[in-house]
Structure formats: C-alpha cells, structure tokens
Amino acid sequence: MIENVLSGLPILISLIFIVFFAVLYANYRVVLYIVNSLLWTIYAVYEAMIYSGVLCFGGCTNRVDLLAIYSILLVATLGGITVFVHSLQKHKKNEKNK
C-alpha cells in the first residue's frame, strides 16, 4: 500500500517544480527558469517510464542513476532559486530608492 503511494512521489514533486519554474519564466523571462522546468519535465517522464517498466524490468532496487540525476537537479534548482531570490532583493532595493 505505502509503496504505491511513494512510487508516484517523485513525479508529484517534479510537477511542483515544473509549474513553479514555468510560472517564474512566464513572469520574468529568465532562461534558467525554463531550463529548470524542462529538466524537471525530463526527470518526471524518466521516472514515469521507470515505474511503468519501460526502462526497468523486474523492479529497480539499485538506482545508481539517481546520483547523477539528483545532483544535476539540485544544482539547477538551487541556481534558479538563487537567481529568483536575488532578483527579488534587487527589486526591493530599487523600490526603496524611489
């Protein structure tokens, strides 16, 4: 039972980041945001293919591939969030000076 719930968790988390970065891109037009959204989309499709058995036969218990995937997603996501926070601080500073 719990395994069925957790199997969809990476895809759900991916959807949250896909929407988050797509909204940021729509508002700010920063290329890094759309790159992040695309990376998370690719990851969600990859996970869906793993769970459906297209890319993994007989249950993948040793997911060494996630070491590379999570590292890339972590760096890209932190970069995108850092750029967003920096732009918010810059915008606040500009508003104060007016």
Model description:
With 98 residues, this protein is an all-alpha fold. It is 83% helix and 0% strand. It contains 4 helices and no strands. The chain has helices at residues 2-7, 9-28, 31-52, 65-97. The protein is elongated. The termini are far apart. The mean pLDDT is 87.
Largest sheet: none
Succession of helices and strands: HHHH
Give the number of DSSP strands. Answer: 0
In the predicted model, the low-confidence regions spanning at least 5 consecutive residues are: none
Return the average pLDDT rounded to an integer. Answer: 87
Through-space gap between termini? 57 Å
Q: Indicate the multimeric state.
A: single chain
Radius of gyration: 17 Å
Identify the overall geometry.
Answer: elongated
> From the helix content, strand content and strand pairing, which structural class follows?
mainly alpha
Q: How much helix is in the residues?
A: over 70%
Strand fraction band? under 5%
> How many helical stretches?
4
Descriptive keywords:
single chain; 98 residues; mainly alpha; 4 helices
Please render the helix and strand layout as text.
Layout: H1 2-7, H2 9-28, H3 31-52, H4 65-97
Helix pairs in contact: 2-3, 3-4
